[in-house]
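// run 5 | inverse folding | seed 20
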């Protein structure tokens, strides 16, 4: 006598459900971290309990207390206030880098894929040459020529990040250009410029968004490193990379709070950007299913 066994359809397996829930949870966590950092940058003057540059010689290296939740630094400045105010330059600089690189890389990639020929070879060679130079090296050279500051860091890092977005988008644009709908639009008499602007580029925007989100964390890390070596934000500016550098002297004295808190914020934000980029890649591009 045989018995019948009922099995659940494969498409409704609990493993897939767990992966979906876990994927949404990671994406929600990453988005929450980024949103909190952005809100801190926007509302720092309202949230910070003290002036971030207010020096108090009587409160040097104080620990956590009701007056100073995260303690104070070597000049008696409130660390929580400096972290909140430091979010603005720490986020604006990499945002400018990734947006500039994203816009410039997309324009170069789409135009190269559409025009082809010598122009495509020129753009590809240019991107390969820039890709061969580390962003920090370019920024150091630019700082030596034009002087230190976040503006110089933003300009040079924007140039350095062009290949990271341009090369990926160009490959996708070449595939998109050969799709049937592009040939149909050309047969209808639509100009190449309108096809690129109204159809080709919008179809590539999800890929550009994923690249920008992923690159944002690395750009923040590069900007912070630039400030750490003294060529980015200058004292007494509250900026996360500069806070790590300013707190390095206190580490030997057993007062690592300033470097520790600022470094932890940088690490958490970079990880969140990577997770956000991976999550957007699965959602928008259908990767990793």
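// decoded
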């Amino acid at each position: 006598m045989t018995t019948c066994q009922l099995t659940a359809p494969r498409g409704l397996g609990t493993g897939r459900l767990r992966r979906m829930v876990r994927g949404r949870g990671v994406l929600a966590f990453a988005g929450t971290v980024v949103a909190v950092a952005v809100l801190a940058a926007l509302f720092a003057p309202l949230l910070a309990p003290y002036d971030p540059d207010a020096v108090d010689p009587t409160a040097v290296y104080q620990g956590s207390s009701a007056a100073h939740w995260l303690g104070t630094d070597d000049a008696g400045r409130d660390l929580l206030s400096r972290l909140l105010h430091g979010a603005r330059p720490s986020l604006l600089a990499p945002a400018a880098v990734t947006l500039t690189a994203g816009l410039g890389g997309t324009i170069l990639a789409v135009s190269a894929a559409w025009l082809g020929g010598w122009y495509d070879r020129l753009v590809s060679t240019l991107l390969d040459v820039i890709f061969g130079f580390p962003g920090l090296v370019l920024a150091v050279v630019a700082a030596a020529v034009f002087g230190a500051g976040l503006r110089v860091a933003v300009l040079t890092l924007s140039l350095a990040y062009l290949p990271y977005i341009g090369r990926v988008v160009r490959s996708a644009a070449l595939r998109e250009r050969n799709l049937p709908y592009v040939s149909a639009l050309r047969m209808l008499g639509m100009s190449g410029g309108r096809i690129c602007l109204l159809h080709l580029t919008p179809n590539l925007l999800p890929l550009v968004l994923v690249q920008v989100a992923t690159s944002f964390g690395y750009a923040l890390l590069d900007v912070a490193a630039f400030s750490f070596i003294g060529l980015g934000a200058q004292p007494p500016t509250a900026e996360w990379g500069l806070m790590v550098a300013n707190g390095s002297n206190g580490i030997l004295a057993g007062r690592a709070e300033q470097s520790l808190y600022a470094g932890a914020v940088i690490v958490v934000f970079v990880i969140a950007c990577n997770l956000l980029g991976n999550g957007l890649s699965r959602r928008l591009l259908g990767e990793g299913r």
